[in-house]
Amino acid sequence: MDRDAFMQGMKDRNIGTGLHYRAVHLYPYYRETFGFKQGDFPNAERISDRIVSLPLFPAMTGADQDRVITAMKDLFRRT
To answer: What are the pLDDT digits (tens) for 44-66?
Structure first.
């Protein structure tokens, strides 16, 4: 399962996720200013293509956590 499928699966279960990290060197400013291109920093790109932020907020309860974990287990069982 790729990141997009995981995020969609969580969304289908009404659980929000976030995409908070993108390989910085691929943003237009860095490409245009420094000439960076895809492949220049393969580790950053590999991580960028896979990382997801899970729900985390001050009022999150144990039941909220259990719901997220259950949804993830369900998704991972299907792959």
So the answer is: 999 998 999 999 999 999 999 99
How far apart, in whole angstroms, are the C-alpha atoms of residue 52 and residue 68?
13
Only one residue has tokens 């920093």, namely 41
The pTM assigned to this predicted structure is 0.75
Nearest to 73, CA basis, from 6, 27, 17 = 6
Non-local CB neighbours of 24 within 8 Å, separated by 6+ positions: 30, 44
Q: For 18, list phi and psi in degrees, rounded to 5.
A: -135, 150
Q: Are 25 and 40 in contact (CB under 8 A)?
A: yes
Q: How far apart are CA 30 and CA 20, in angstroms?
A: 18
CA–CA distances in Å: residue 78 to residues 34, 36, 37, 48? 42, 38, 35, 24
